Protein 1
Amino acid sequence: MADLFRMWRNTRMVVLTAICAALYAAILIPFKVVPLIPGITEFRPANAVPIVCSFLFGPAAAWGAAFGNLIGDFFGGLGPGDLFGFLANLLYGLVPYAVWEAVTTRPPVPIDPNPSSPRRGEEGVLRRAFGLATLWVRLLPVIVLAAMLCATVVGWGLHLLGFHPFTVLGTVVLVNNLAVAVVLVPPLLAVLYPRVHHARLLYRDVLGPRARLPAWRAMLGVTCVVVGTVAAFSAGELVASGRWRPPWVPCRTTSGACEVGFGLVPFLGVTVGGLALL
């Protein structure tokens, strides 16, 4: 997580941030005419961009997603809820590379079961399909985790402000994120990652290598991120629907804004603490 701040001292990372933001905004803006919740969110094919760029450009993608989403929101009308959209998209672009780097040293590309033999004819097609399927399986947990955290922060913030209930907004954002990212991220990475690697523009090429985290720290960090995210999303659904009231919440409101606002803070704190370890 320290890379989020260290990268601003690197000119190339700043340029990559601008590129990620511009790409994200450029795909977001045309789809403002396809709202799912008017004035709040719309169908977003661009939701694959932060995750793909996260694996390519690391912290530059996190800031790029945050600023790109803010630029897109400008065309739909800015409001206090956009602060939570900024934070949610920052985390959406941060989680994939941070968690992936903590659990594996393998690049997010398809695995060839028999790399020594040439890819020809039907066998080559089957091997490429197998490689893409294995990549999808490996990426799916990270995609779900990032999408859930993004949806949780957006749903939490806008319920806290009294705009939309978490049960509606959190669920819509999660489904919207997953519907696009699960389909588009694996093939896009399979095509783009080797080319960006060849150009030496991956974030570790630009920022320099990082010392491997101790196993205990990586495990604790990933566990906190997973447990905190799942608990926060589940708590948001339960509290907003009136099925549970956190005992530490000091007030009660008819809209549930106070209950959701205070109720999710400990779980989100665990998530942020886990990211800090990574």
Protein 2
Amino acid sequence: MSASFDRLERYSRQMRFPAMGKAGQEKLLASRVTLCGCGALGTVLANTLVRAGVGFIRIVDRDFVEPSNLQRQVLFDESDVANNLPKAEAAATKLRQINSGVVVEPVVADIDRTNIEDLCRDVDLILDGSDNFEVRYLINDVAVKTGKPWVYGGAVGSQGMSMTIIPGETPCLRCVFEAAANPGDVGTCETAGVLGPTVSIVASFQAVEALKLLSGNAAAINRELLVIDVWENTHRRVKVAPLKGRKGECPCCAKRIFEWLDGAHGTQTTTLCGRNAVQVSHRTASAIDFEQLATTLKGSGTVSFNKFLLKFRLDETGDPYEFTVFPDGRAIIKGTSEPDKARALYARYVGH
């Protein structure tokens, strides 16, 4: 058999799909992707795309594998927890065993405005496997700035969303979600839980959109916002095309002002000397509803609040993390001196 046949044989069933064919598969093998986040959505995305033959995938994640990840993060197992492995490295090891013909580049890093452009500079597509809107708005800024397509996805509880964004052709993320929700207004996987099937379905929709784009079938992409609820058995497609540019007022795709990349929005951290604590704050203040946030957090720890601040002690882990949250969204997280860890805890429990 020819070398070409050997290389393509594993994808034979995929190539028999008429829209893919050999030409589409060759394009996949030559394509490059940055995956931002390798948790629930990210592991399904990485697994699917590596098996499909995407030639290069850069996996960027800041976190380590924990026991609570195993319920839905399909590339990890108990040995990864025992070995205290970073998610990006653990995923890369599994993926190389699945398909040695693709290049997997793990990057253990916290995605922020200082590194996201470099992480996405040399790829054809950006995929959202993150768990917070700060990263998504950064992706959106970079994608619009550089003209690269990206695929948004999110899943909490039994609900999920996905949308494909092609700069210049479709609305960008800020056309549809003009601003991030205030901290505490939206549930997270830690506070609202998440069902594994929700994640798998949303990530599978993201993955097929990626395959369309990378194989030269962009005309087939879904140009609407997909909204599902696996518990309530609902599936909606929301028409977002009329929102494109928001009549010239979208700061990102219409005015080309990249506020998240420029640092006008997002979180910033300060390590508090001698206190084993980190302050996490937003560059623009957000009004916190303490009553709503307390209701959200009560299943995860001990909560008390008054009109001045909210106190939250995390009960579910052996680590003694204590949160003091202020009305403007600022929080002091006691129990760590690591800014990246504090930001991750803030996103996980307080919100995006």
Protein 3
Amino acid sequence: MKIIVTGGAGFIGSHTVVDLLENGYEPIVIDDFRNSKPFIIERIKKITNKDFVSYNFDCGDIKKLSSVFLKEKPDAIIHFAADKAVNESVSNPLKYYHNNISTLVNVLSVVNKSKVKSFVFSSSCTVYGVPKKVPVSEFSPIQQAFSPYGFTKQIGEQILSDFAKSNPGVSISLLRYFNPIGAHPSGLIGELPLGVPSNLVPFITQTAIGIRESLIVHGNDYDTTDGTCIRDYIHVLDLARAHVLAFSNYLKKNNKPLILNIGTGKGSSVLEVIESFKKVNKTNLNYTFGPRRDGDAPCVYANSSLAKKVLGWEHKFSLEDALSHAWEWEKQLSIL
């Protein structure tokens, strides 16, 4: 079974490709490496001891995209390709509206002419905006997005909902994942921020390794237990498994997409993550407090009971596991 994975060399995409290969699927990666590096492809092959096809181009190039679909004749697609930094989307919203929305439209235009039976969309908990109540479930009201990035995910979900109505032969799954962290336990692949990290854990690991002088904690005056933001941190391997289960287990029964939260159901504050990292990896960490960051909601974590009911999915890795694996990845990166 052939599965196209757009953004398949990225953080979540690369781990999903590993899961696909280990479960007998035939992934076809499309990535322009704007958020990754070509060596990740070779690392995936090393982890799995399996070969696979990859293409290097932007999914905005509809001619190349069409030619790949025509040649490979995929059965399903998992769509990760998008820009993903919340704070960058605030400072450069046009980049996000262009890349995240137009790319999705391009992909769907090609899917519309193909025989693809399943489409899995990498959505985000940012579609909930600032939730009025936590944990958030799939039935929680959608609030105004807190960032352009979140708004592009809201628009993407609407586009796919409309697409589903006119394409009853394609099952569509929208996975609203929470905060992915960690790395493959081998240390061979993980999150690879280009430039200054915008996510917490890679900033922590880069500070611990000495690349950054100090971690800045953005805000310590939120209405939370310790004043710092609370998030639901999920291991990337658990998240990858959910994407694979979504296209393989979901049989469409109507013209509505399947919408699922993918998270641990537990919120951890920034300070709790810092202290856990220090403890599990037996290392010190310099950090200071700075002002709040635009686009950050105070507290978001998941109710993922529906994913367990529908897919039989539940997370296996702990926060400590994820922080240990992320540190191993950072140490191996330092010797490249």
Protein 4
Amino acid sequence: MKKKIAILGSTGSIGKTLLNLIAKDKKNFDVQLLTANNDYKTLLKQAKKFKVKNLIITNRKSFELLKNKTKNLNIKIFNSFDNLNKIFKFKIDYVMSSIMGIDGLEPTIKIIKFTNKIVIANKESIICGWNIINKELKKNKTEFIPVDSEHFSLWFGLQNLKVNNIEKIFITASGGPFYKISLNQFKNIRTSQALKHPNWKMGKKISIDSATMINKIYEVIEARNIFNIPYKNIQILIHPKSYIHAILKFNNGLIKIIAHDTTMKIPIFNTLFLNSNKNLKSKKINLKILNDLKFKKVNLKRYPMIKLFKYLPAKQSLFETIIVSANDKLVELFLNKKIKFTDIQKKLFYIIKSNEFSKYKKIYPKKAKDILELNNYVRLKVLKNVYKSINV
């Protein structure tokens, strides 16, 4: 029987990688839904190639253009995730949620009840709305697998083991493009420099997050949420080669080290084919890297964003949404050359340390609307606070 699949954010890198894997075994898959925000041309090409009957595209203009392009095709076009009940009459086998940013939160929550397994690549959903997601997972008996290389590695390393047997986990960071430049050069960093990640091909936003190292703060929050591990038991290690993705130290003295090549194809493949008879061609073990791992602790002078740890509340709250939303807007301003690279961290700390936002450490997110409304407010607040120093 064919596996029934849906991909939220199919025109992004994660979605494309998943479709490339499916294409090699197309006879065993039935892709029932693909979605995008704006890229209707790629979405239509994907729909034709995989014979997909349902598409969601959320940008209104792109929706109208896609409708015109599909007038004579047997494809249903929707403009909203409110129509999922018209698409799925029964639970499907697998959903990949890879919509970028906070926009991925509501679609992720809404589709859980329609699938037996959901694989989430959207950091913001797990950071800001994990309690809501987890409630839906339990309510609908839906299996969850994280697909970020670090969290998939932790998840894989914990198979048939209990979280309370963990003494400590280590998440690795490459150090980004500025691992070796002198500290006095940071004030003159250009956008083009910050986008040049040494190991991974990524979108602009996540490339900047990697350069500031806030992406590792995000990953620690995700690990805390997913595995229910306190922050004191999670540590970041600099590992320039990005070959080791996670280390698990157990309270029985054993240590697990999870490694794979720097490609998202490996975790994505395993969310789809784990415990099956399918094999993925991969490179031989790189002994040169294994013999020269060069793990280092994070230098706070080089990566001051890591100081965010001391402001994080022990339990999930709306404060994480403030961090994500403020950073999103500041990165946008940096990419548009309105602020300096060093301003991202400085202005983020200014925002989160204010009395107005500190109180959110004690407020628990109850529904997606709480998170989305706060996101919009924080983004406007960031603009207001930096208005005097930028030309908007």
